Prior knowledge:
By secondary structure, this protein is α+β, with helices and mostly antiparallel strands. It has helices at residues 35-41, 143-146, 149-161, and strands spanning 9-12, 19-22, 28-32, 46-52, 56-58, 64-68, 76-80, 87-92, 99-103, 117-119. The relative contact order is 0.19.
Amino acid sequence: MNQEQPFSAAGGCACGALRYRLTRQPLFVNCCHCTWCQRQSGAAFALNAMLETSYIVSLGEAPQAMDIPTPSGKGQRLLRCAKCGVVAWSHYATAGDALGFIRVGTLDEAHRFPPNIHFFTDSKQPWVTLAEGVPAVGGNYKVHEYFPQPSLQRWQALFSSAGEGGKK
Length: 168
């Protein structure tokens, strides 16, 4: 059995009221270039580290939940600081509360979490240059084609226990 090395990464909002710790290596880090993420982030893309929510430990004030629409019509729940409004992570309806999408920019050492993939690059800003050697796809990607095997096993276990089957 392959044992993971001990892992810890901390993050938080701009004012410091919301703090959290990741206690396991994220499954995957994706960089979305869709126009929806551009609008929501106010930037050229959204960079998210995907992690089972059970490994996100709240250290400061509890995040405030806010539901917003998504192009799929299924919605997204943002978890943000009640004081400064910074979004620390979110949950998509397709994955439910079991999977968190941590905003990499809120991590204290964000440089430790470069993207494993760029997706929806068909709508990326033309001045964004993608790094060599990082997969890039024009639309969405299939988890089973890009996740490393240990992450794929965790993904499948997460969704089979939630009755979803990990088909995404």
